[in-house]
Every structure is written in C-alpha cells, then in structure tokens.
Specification:
The structure holds two protein chains of two kinds. Chain A contains twelve helices and twelve strands. Chain A is of the alpha/beta class. Chain A folds into two domains: about 240 residues, Rossmann fold; about 70 residues, no CATH class. In chain A, a hairpin with a 2-residue loop joins strand 11 and strand 12. In chain A, helix 3 crosses helix 4 and helix 4 crosses helix 5. Chain B has two domains: about 250 residues, MetI-like (MetI-like fold); about 45 residues, no CATH class. The two termini of chain B are about 45 Å apart. Chain B is built from 14 helices and no strands. The longest helix of chain B has about 35 residues. The chains are: A alpha/beta, B mainly alpha. Chains A and B meet through helix 3 and helix 5 of A and helix 10 and helix 11 of B.
C-alpha cells in the first residue's frame, strides 16, 4: 500500500535499559528493548504486538524521546533526533495516545484545557477566540460536541475520555501518532467505534501510526504492517496479511494460532500451538535467542547467538536460526 | 400500550410511538451543572457543623482584632493615670472590670458619659481589653504570616525534590532530616537572643514589633518548612507517575509547567489542610516565646506576654491570666477543628 513511500520514522538498533536496584549501590540493567530496528513509512500504520512486558510500550515511549535511549538511533523525516532542539521539533510533529483513559486526563482540568494544553505549551494561537475555535474543531474531529468543552474528565465515560485524549494528541497537527494500546481499556462495542475513528482520521489528516496493542484482531484490522516483539527483541516484521497467512517465526505462529475464530466449525478444526512455560524475566533473559526456552524447535545454536533480523523475503523480516529447517 | 377501548387487544396504539416533540425532548435532557472538586469540598465543609462554627469563630476573632483598635476610645500603650504636668494618678492602676479612676468618676458625677474598662486595667493603668485585642492581632498575624512563609518555602523545595527525584531529592531530603533532628525550641530561643543583638530595627517600621518577632519569622522560615516540603514531595512523587504528566511531556512541557499545571493543583487539598494546621502551631510557639519574654517588645502586647505579666498578680487578679489564656485556647482550638474539617472535606482518600 505504501511500499514506495519514504520512511517517516526510522529506528536503528534501539536499546533501552533501565537500572534496577539490587540492594546497596548495586544495579542491574533491565533490557526492556534490546537492539530493535524498523521503519515506518509515511501514511502507513505499523502494528506492534507481543505479550505483556515484552517492551512494546517502551519502544513507543523511547521513540518519542520520553526516555533517553541507551543506544541506537532514531531518525525522523530523514533527520536524526539528537539535540534538545530536535526533540522540541519532534514534539510538534509526533504525539501519543495513552492506554488508560482514566489516568491520562488531569482530573482538575476542563476538557477544553486538556485539549488545548499542547497549544498552550507551544503558543500556537494568538487570541483566546482562536484557541477556542481550534478546541471545538478538534472536538468535532473525535465526535464530541461543544457542550462538553467546559466539563471535567470525570463526567465522561471511558470511550469519551479516550476521544478527549485523541483530540489532545491531534492538537498540534501532528504527522505521527504513537497509539499505546488505545483501545484495550474500552469495551468491545466502543473499541470498534474508536478504531474506525482512527482509520477515518488517518485518511482525513494524513497521519502515520505506530499502533501498539495485544489484541491481534484489532491490530490486523488497522495495520498495514505488523511487527512482533518478544522479550525486548523484534522477532518478525511483515505486512499484515503476510503475518496472518504465513507467519514464519515459531513465536508468531503460536501467537497467531491463539486468535479466536468467530466460526465455531473453523475453530474446532483449528489447532492451537500452546507454548510451555512462562515468559522469562527480562532481568535474566536467556542467552542467544530469547525465545529458545519455549521454542519447540530450539537447538544448541539458538543458545549461542542471537539470530540476525533478516529480510528473508521481500518486506518480510524474521529473526530465527532454524527458519529454513522448520518452514 | 394499553388501549382502553379494547382491553384484551394486543394491538399497540400507534400514537404512543410518535417521535417526541421538542418540548418533550427538553424535559428529558437534564444537564447537571458541572461541579468542580473545589465546590464539592466547600459543600462538604459547610455540612460539617463543628468546622463551620470554628470558621465563624475565626472570622469573628480576626475581624474584631482588625476593627476594634480603631474604634475603641483607649489605646493599648496609654497609661490612663499619667498626664502631663500632674502627679501620677495611681487610682487608674489595677482597676477591676467596669471600675473607673478618680477623674473619670468626677466626670460621671458631672453627667458625662465615660466608656467602661470592660476588663479593667493592668498594673500600669492601661485598658486591658484593648491590650487583649492587640495581643490577639499580633498572635494571628504571626500565625498567618509564618504559615505563608512555610507554605512558600516548603512548596518550592518540596516540588523540586518530588519532581526531579534522584540525586536532587536525596540531597534535599538529607538536609530535611538534619533540620528535623534539631530541637526547634532551643534553636528559636538561641536565635532570638542572638538576633536581638544583631538585628537593628531602630527607626524602621519593624521597631514596634521588635527584633524578637523578626527572628521568630526567620526561624520559622528556616525550620518549619521541612514538614511541608516532605508532604509535598511525597504527593508529587506519586502524582508524577500519572499518565497525564507523561501526556504533558509528550506535548513538550517542561518541569515548571508540569509542576504548576498538573502536580500542585492535584495536591492542593493536602497543601490547604497542612497550611491551616500550621497556623495554630505558629500561634502557640509565639505565645510560648512571648511568655518567656522572648516575643514582642513592650509595650506591644501579645497573648503570651499578657499571660506572663499577669503572673505577678495572679492571686488578686486571676482573670488577667485567664482572659488571654482563653483567647489562645479559642483561636488554636477553632483553627485546629477547622483544619480537621478541611481535611475531612477535601481529602478524597477519607471519604471514599
């Protein structure tokens, strides 16, 4: 769909380690994200999936320089983001929608103040009237009406709160939005509305999304390409259809076999690949391939080195030593 | 819909399914006026009878201490028995309540009206009521200003420690620990003595209240901010993990913006409550020091120094000790009860 488009956001070898206190003056690095590389093309939606604690959210936040990356490069629109000025510039073009619509809105602020906060910070209006007009325009985008502007966040339902959060993220006229599990706190009927709204907004405002989620059906619906993460590493990246029809990495296979099917007959015929054991703690990650402790195909080579993240087919990246033998 | 003509018919009356008119729609939509946290809190506060009564007492006492000195016919420092060119008239000293001095009695006999000495006079022939009012004024002023100083310093330092965390926080909190461990009364007394020598307030506006009070403010500023700073730091440490702070950072906000727009407004209840509870604390300290003779300079009275002076004549003029003591009790008790009421009304954790 966007094959020819230039990458808007590019990440090369991104690392994000957190120091964990292990007692008196001893710290240990927690490798939340370890050597992740990918690119997001202009106008596309990249879905990012994986289990809880695999580093999806950290990727999203480090991408926006909310955490100072431990290593690696972040490129935005052909320019590397390094200095404070770069970051200030990035703040006007890249925003974020948060997971929890309850804690992401300040309970002491009215909706119009919440939505206008980015405008206030960047001094993006000249008169009060201009600010008010912009707020109402943004609220119109997300299907809220002007009566809601003077109310407080606690007066709204979860879905409405998430719309307020989306309106806020649109305030600076961004090109790129990191959606950090924006629908997982909502119930299913509201999820559909919000997802469709994301789709409409993308068409209308020419947006690029990094869509983080753990609901695989939601991700498939909205994404052009999907990246699968496991324990801080990216294991597979391909177009949405490709991943769904022909997942190559053993982890992606088992992940996708867990997607519930709406047709009971198909569901009965469908075989789930159930993994044994639990996801290891990122503090004591296994050597080599992080998935080897649970992988049915693991061999010695998997314990020795991390498999490279290679393009095995056009636009299909996989990191697995034993790809040839198992496919 | 039940139609009366055909009681057993299952047919629905189509009239019942007509779209609602504008007037009917208007009836159904009830938009409750938006209520803020602050309004809710005030509502809860006013429901609390003890707190409301305390608030009324505080307002009355404050108003009285501001207004009464300008309408009262006697002044706090004028010795009524002393007149230029005449010997001292000792009949004015130590008057009981509603008694009069010699010259005043003559005036009354002549049919003139003389304003009564409601609480009598003290050993120097000064009207005692106005002295108590002045003492209240001083005590309240010390209480309010000391709390404001504590609030400003504590809020600034606490915000910095709580928001930035890490090494800044560690350093500030160790300083706080050191100050905490000092015996504050001892420091106040030592500083009051030293300041009295060092500070030169002669000829300035501050001369009337004296260097002791100034040193008391300084000590308050230096010592009492620690508990406020700790409290605010704790609040901010927990609040800065909220996602709306992250959202603000995504929008490009810096520390000052986040602290003033997000963190402090969300800890405002705690700030109000502890400031309100700080006032009686300061008043009590002031009275205590004045009682020891380290407070205001004579002839300016404070409630503590009035009580201290009254000790000399305690067997004959007991009421002179009881009156300022009662006023202190009234002020401190009302402020404490009001502070408790504020906490009940504004602390969301308590009324969950």
């Amino acid at each position: 769909m966007h094959e020819g488009a230039a990458p808007l956001v590019e990440v090369k070898g991104l690392k994000q380690y957190f120091d964990i206190n292990m007692g008196f003056f001893r710290t240990k690095p927690l490798k939340a994200v370890d050597d992740v590389s990918f690119a997001i093309r202009k106008g596309e939606t990249l879905g990012l999936v994986g289990e809880s604690g695999c580093g999806k959210t950290t990727v999203g936040r480090t991408l926006l320089h909310l955490y100072e990356p431990t290593g690696g490069e972040i490129w935005y629109n052909g320019k590397q983001v390094v200095t404070k000025d770069d970051i200030t510039e990035l703040r006007k073009k890249a925003t974020m929608v948060f997971q929890d619509p309850y804690s992401s809105l300040n309970p002491r602020m009215t909706v119009s103040d919440i939505v206008a906060e980015p405008l206030d910070i960047h001094h993006m209006y000249k008169t009060k009237q201009e600010r008010q007009d912009r707020v109402l325009e943004l609220m119109g985008y997300v299907g809220l009406n002007s009566e809601h502007a003077s109310r407080y966040a606690h007066e709204f339902s979860g879905g409405q709160r998430q719309r307020i959060g989306i309106a806020r993220s649109l305030a600076v006229n961004p090109e790129f939005i990191v959606c950090d599990e924006p629908v997982s706190a909502l119930d299913v009927s509201i999820q559909a509305q919000v997802i469709n709204m994301f789709d409409d907004l993308q068409d209308k405002l020419d947006l690029t999304y990094l869509f983080i989620a753990h609901d695989l059906l939601v991700v498939r619906h909205i994404s052009d390409r999907i990246a699968v993460m496991y324990l801080g590493k990216m294991v597979e990246l391909a177009s949405a259809d490709e991943i769904y029809n022909r997942p190559l990495h053993p982890y992606s296979r088992s992940l996708l076999s867990a997607v519930p099917l709406p047709d009971p007959r198909a569901a009965r015929a469908h075989k789930r690949i159930v993994l044994t054991g639990d996801i290891p703690s990122p503090l004591n990650a296994p050597s080599g391939c992080p998935f080897r402790t649970r992988c049915p195909y693991a061999k010695e080579v998997c314990a020795q080195s991390m498999p490279p993240f290679e393009e095995v087919e056009t636009d299909h990246f996989v990191a697995c030593h034993r790809l040839k033998e198992i496919s | 819909m039940f139609s009366p003509n055909k009681p057993f018919s299952l047919q629905q009356d189509p009239d019942a399914f007509l779209p609602a008119s504008e007037a009917e729609k208007e009836q159904i939509t009830q938009l409750r006026p938006s209520s803020t946290f602050f309004r809710d809190g005030v509502k809860r506060l006013l429901k609390n009878k003890v707190a409301t009564f305390s608030l009324i007492m505080i307002v009355l006492v404050t108003l009285a201490s501001i207004i009464l000195p300008s309408v009262w016919p006697y002044s706090y420092e004028k010795m009524l028995g002393v007149r230029p060119g005449r010997p001292v008239d000792s009949s004015y000293n130590n008057l009981a309540p509603f008694e009069y001095g010699k010259t005043e009695l003559k005036k009354i006999e002549a049919g003139e009206k003389v304003f009564p000495h409601v609480f009598g006079t003290d050993a120097h022939g000064r009207d005692y009521f106005i002295r108590v009012v002045y003492g209240t004024r001083i005590s309240l002023a010390v209480g309010f200003f000391a709390s404001i100083i504590v609030l400003i310093i504590g809020m600034t330092i606490g915000s910095i420690a709580g928001y930035f965390g890490g090494k800044v926080d560690l350093l500030i909190m160790r300083i706080v620990d050191i100050i905490y461990s000092l015996p504050d009364m001892l420091v106040i007394i030592l500083l009051a003595v030293v300041m009295g020598q060092v500070l030169n307030v002669q000829g300035t506006v501050l001369e009337k209240i004296g260097s002791n009070i100034i040193s008391m403010f300084i000590v308050f500023a230096m010592l009492y901010w620690v508990s406020m700073a700790r409290l605010i730091r704790g609040q901010l440490l927990s609040l800065r993990k909220q996602e709306y702070v992250l959202a603000s950072q995504v929008a490009g906000a810096k520390g000052k913006w986040i602290i003033t727009k997000h963190l402090l407004p969300n800890s405002i209840s705690v700030i109000i409550i502890s400031t309100a509870l700080q006032i009686p604390n300061a008043i009590f300290t002031e009275s205590f020091l004045s009682f020891l003779g380290l407070g205001v300079n004579a002839p300016m009275p404070s409630l503590g120094s009035l009580a201290s002076d009254a000790l000399n004549g305690i067997s004959s003029y007991t009421y002179r000790l009881i009156i300022p003591a009662l006023v202190i009790c009234l002020i401190v008790l009302s402020l404490n009860l009001f502070g408790d009421g504020l906490r009940d009304a504004f602390d969301p954790k308590l009324n969950a």
